[in-house]
Amino acid sequence: MSPQFWEDVAQGDALTPLAFPLSVARLVVAAGANRDFNAIHHNSEYAKATGAPEMYANTLFLQGMWERAVRDFIGLNGQLLGMKGFRMSSFNLVGDTVTVKGEVIRTWREGGRGLIEIRIWSENAKGISVGPGSVIASMPCRFDMPDGLAC
Prior knowledge:
By secondary structure, the chain is of the alpha+beta class. The chain contains 3 helices and 5 strands. It has a domain at 6-21 and 59-139: Thiol Ester Dehydrase, Chain A, CATH 3.10.129. The protein has a 5-stranded antiparallel β-sheet with strand order 1-3-4-5-2.
């Protein structure tokens, strides 16, 4: 079970790996949802004509996978504050399963908030396909601290 409060998180905690099978239907829906109508993301013949091995997931869909994995960890009351190191090193092709993994690398308090930094990456059958990068997030605190800060 994922932590509900900042006090429950420790350096080294792992996110539950989250798998995304990339079907044609999922890629078409993702392209439509984020309005990326470039045919490389939903047409095999077109993608292959551009030199890609097959149609592949677009950037916003892959970023959404990271957000979903972090959101599952921090809960609905947490906030995603920043992302860095997001870079694609290989295609995430139709037929692949992309698994997002991560681990807490730091926790701290700042400005009355409980903050965490998560090292995060995506893997497919060929290895790491996106990242590694990091996400900064805040989480609700269970108790007010003696210094009057919320966390």
